[in-house]
Records
---
Amino acid sequence: MIQIGINENVYIHDAVLDDKGNICITFEQLGEPGKEKPTSTFANIAADEVIETEYGMTIKLFPPLPPKPDNGRSVEKNVQLLQSDINKTKGIILHLLGGFMTTEQLKGKINPFESLPIDESNFDEQIQKKEILDGVHRNLGRAFVELIKPYLDHKDNPFRLLLVRQSPEKHFATLRGKYIKENPFWEPMTVPKEASKLAFTAYETTAGLTNGIPIAKPANAAGDAHVAAAPALNVGNVFQ
């Protein structure tokens, strides 16, 4: 089962842009011959949360959220944070595509601002708007889906995949999105295990991002003696 940690014999089964503009990447793992998959790919992607099955997992990359009015941050800081969010998604898809295409082949194939009313003269204002952020994310998603299509279901070339916990509070798996060049999250299975570059970073280890154990918390504000599991996360609350 694909889970937080280093997973072996993984391949990309599907990649789609759903009707909410989320980039959905389905990873699957080579399983036992003749054994049926317990969940269809359609049901997996259609769900409102990350679905884990015996064979695979769909990771969703969500559009950046526009800054809230009067959040106390400067325009410069808001723009900087949004740029970081966009670059995180772009970095993830480039890292995945880099296993199948050269840098030269990818050159000019991904344009986040295609057909959007944004340029250098109005960038700071436009990039804070929801419709622009959604458009940028869709452009990244469309490009990724199109470029990765020829390489889906490449079961003869499986890879190792490292997944991290979303946050100390949120136990679902996700892809790391920063410093990927130095800390890749996937590599071909042809790389000998002793030469593998896949590992949790010191930050991920210290922050508790190395396991998928849900955090228990008091059942109510009064603090009962017993504890209850944290509520299930879904698209509506996972990034609140």
---
Amino acid sequence: MNKLVSIITDPAIGGTFLSWSLEYLAGHTNSYSTAEKTYLPLVDNPVQEHNSHVFRPNQFCKSRDVIEAIDELSNLPNKHDRKIEVMYMHSVNYYSDKHKDWFISLNAVLDSERPVILVRTPKPYVLYHGLNEKRAFKGMGTGKVSTQEKNINVFFKDAKRTWDELNLTNIYDNREFIALNFRPFDFDEQANLVDTLHNKDNVLNLLAIDVWQNLDNTIYDIMNYIQVDIKSDRYALWLDVYSQWKTLHTKRVMWCWYYDQIIEYILNGYSMDLTRFDLDIYQEATIQHTMMFKYNLNFKTFELNKFTNTKQLHDLLEPNIHSL
């Protein structure tokens, strides 16, 4: 029976890259695809503009697919050049009925008694997902996918209609609308369903930051845990690819690291260059949201199209007039 390794992560934090890394560092030249029912060449570099989805992992949403995949991957013919088979799923099954299907999937993985790698986003990094642009679309996207308009139309349609009727459609009006209506610090409790995994002996628990920024060190713990040696001639090549992929996360992670200091600098009138973070409208709205909801302040944002410096924003502070 083949060694099956299961990867479980919060959505869009690097499960695809980690799946590829395990196979690549194990020395595999191909990867079995449950979708194609055959072995496909393993790419040397899966990284593209926003993610690593040149590589297609064995990723599943529905419990039926998970159960079938466990059986299929576990019973592939033994091949001397293959050390492991890898399957991957997110920690929340958005297609399930109140997540019942997700727990069926989870139990199927745990009952196999095979290695499970769990990667979670801790609450201090909730802002990592707070961007207008997603890194993936349906798990396999290749281009930019704007989420702002979709979210507004789904959750705030009536408020947006009123906003539009008042002809409040400029970028600074849209930013204020988002700041008033979105809740960027709400920690998704649905993504916290797998806390019971922390007590399982066959689970390696990792924080997302160890994948985003420290995987060049963490990968040794992972490979040791799954009892697979890193192929010596692959690590240096993998390290270069990881550096490329890591860059995709750097500004998002910095945004989380520096957020409290950004707010402190605005309140105190200190100067910090915000262009280094390449803020999008959602991130700017998050700053404005904090000013309104935590400090009862707002900015004089008329014709302010871009946040560029904390001193600039301090000089625009005024009392909040919105009823919150």
---
Amino acid sequence: MFETWTLSSLQAWWWLILSVIGGFLVAMTFIQGGQALLGRVGGDEDGKRLVLNALGRKWELAFTTLVLFGGALFAAFPLYYSVSFGGAYLLWMSILLTFVLQAVSYEFRGKAHNLFGARGFDGFLWVNGTAGVFLLGLAVGSLFTGAPFTRDAANVVHWAGSLRGFEAALAPFNLLLGLTLVLLARVLGALYLLYAVDAPLVETRARAALKLHALAFVPVYLLTVGWLLTLDGVAVHGSSTEVVPLAYLGALSALPVRGVASLLLGTVSVLAGVGLALFAASRRGFWLSFAGSVLVGVGLFSLAGHGELALYASTVAPADSLTLSNASSTRYTLVTMSYVSLLIPFVLAYIAFVWRAMGVRLLTTSEVDSDPLSY
């Protein structure tokens, strides 16, 4: 089957897989968004335990998705992995540090006589829920704005910047994308708490938080998408490069299904989920917005890896920019991995089964009091 595919088709197939994983990673930030709302929605200790118990049953899924994305990226596009994770290591290590703080907080917050106390670990969860998501937005934004690196004839990477990845914070678009992801995560977090927690006070606070953050998210999101479509890109043709005006607007028109449909349908779905929760008092709005976030993520990553546009542009040496073709693994590796990719539906089915098994009921105060996973 895959042996008959061209190398470019295999590369496009694997970028599609990565786009889907990236879309799920964007949607899974509802956990981080819920953590950022812990003080506002939880209120007192009983309320916080309700919120943390709802989120604590799912927090590993976001971290697992991040690791899965990194692993698939390393296998399919090792040169991009080495340039980004090797050159921008301070940015990526900062992201990973916030996820370590998250894991430690869920493990030790409820322990007696812990070093930082419950408030200290609540602060760590806020850092993961806000700074971690924002930094992830900076990293994703660099797919469109590039980074300061060069490559020699042996593909050894030399990072020209001294900030080791935090150069991404110097690009205004990246800052806006980071803010967009933070607001989206909080919208999804509030929707999830409305879905998962059956407590009137928590529900009232979550609904208020949803109104506030949805009101901020909509204009910021539309501004981000509009700005993205006006960005120029770098196209690499062998040893020559050219600047492509409005590159991602052109890519959007060339990807009618993965581009236009994903972004448009995803946007409508996210907003419909918010409307369902606010105006129809439905707990199912979370799932509509979750699915929409996946589609938005798929559209975003699909634009970044379109055609000959640089997947990771060099801002100091455009000829050294990375594309799908020059950053990918060998044909043999991609063919072998493509057969493994056929197992993905079974993995997704298992994740869905575990999700349901770990949280099939709405959490109430009495359930938390008797739950061994209580945080």
---
Amino acid sequence: MSLPALGVLGGTFDPIHFGHLRLAQELADALGLGRVRFIPTGTPPHRDSPQVNGTHRLQMVRIAIAGNPLFDADDREIRRKGISYTYDTLTELHNEHADRPLCLLMGTDAFVALATWHRWQELFDLAHVVIAYRPGFRFEELEDALPAPLRKIYRQRRGGAPALLRASAGAILTREIPALDISATNIRALLAQGSSARYLVPDAVLEYIEKHNLYKESDAR
């Protein structure tokens, strides 16, 4: 592989906040990623539909990452009809970027649920999986929480060295990131009651939210 790996960070981003941004920056720096692609989900398979529509969520991502040359916004899942599956997204990216590895970035909660994802075992044929964890996190607890098939793969594929990214796909890497305890659910609750979400969300994103009257109790999406 001649080019540095491409990080893939999916999520509802409802709204995007500093926790998302710091996770992406930390992992990009630690692993030497060439870019990080933020991909707002369209219709998620495992959770309720986002409160705000895809057009607004994509625009908030674009506003939040503006000025960072490492970050890109990708609208493919917003444009895709039907359920948004990570397998389909990684397949498309793998075909578009055959000259570089892909790194699927996620937190520990998402990894624990990975075995419920569509064609989850095939994700390792398409990308490396990078698990971000907070200081003090105990991996014994992570292993205990994994279903047996995923636990087996985790033990087989886990490593700590960014050098593993020289392969095209298949490794599981774990990296510690700062404990930014920021929740989009809590942000939405603050905004719905008219409280300030400053210092949780970039100011420019808050301005967009206010301009379009998003996350109010009367929000009609």
